[in-house]
């Protein structure tokens, strides 16, 4: 079920406020517009994963534990690299950010509470 225009605007405001109040938490949730999927990372990661699978199979075929373990490590590193997100814009932004005081967080929560109360009053 799609959100109405009003709900989309509220969601955008909440996201913007979250990014301003707690950028570290917002980036950990993955909604930071500065972080995006990189095609280059994906291609290199998939190729490394395939090379790791190949090494693993070669290790099993020649019965060499060292080659098999190396293949598994390369395969894991490829998957990790493929799922990594690039954060070029996020690194540039985080250079001059200072930590905000606790008061801004409480105002964020009070705004959320007010909006919640308004929404429930409107339904009744």
Short description:
Helices cover 75% and strands 3% of the residues. The chain contains 6 helices and 2 strands, in the order ααβααβαα.
What does this structure look like?
With 124 residues, this protein is mainly alpha-helical. It is 75% helix and 3% strand. The protein contains 6 helices and 2 strands; from the N terminus they run ααβααβαα. Strands 1-2 form a two-stranded antiparallel ribbon. It is rod-shaped, with a radius of gyration of 23 Å. The two termini are 22 Å apart. The model is unreliable at 89-94 and 96-103 (pLDDT under 50).
Features:
single chain; 124 residues; two-stranded antiparallel ribbon; 3% strand
The gross shape turns out to be: rod-shaped
The number of strands is: 2
Order of the strands making up the biggest sheet: 1-2
Beta-strand portion reads under 5%
Distance between the termini: 22 Å
**Content-based structural category:** mainly alpha
Major sheet description: 2 strands, antiparallel
Q: State the helicity in percent bands.
A: over 70%
How much is the radius of gyration in Å? Answer: 23 Å
Could you give the order of the helices and strands?
HHEHHEHH
Arithmetic mean pLDDT: 77
> Regarding quaternary structure, how should these chains be classified?
single chain
Model regions low in confidence, pLDDT < 50 over at least 5 residues: 89-94, 96-103
What is the helix tally?
A: 6
Secondary structure layout:
Blueprint: H1 5-21, H2 23-28, E1 36-37, H3 39-61, H4 65-83, E2 85-86, H5 88-93, H6 102-123
Antiparallel strand pairs: 1-2
Helix pairs in contact: 1-6, 3-4
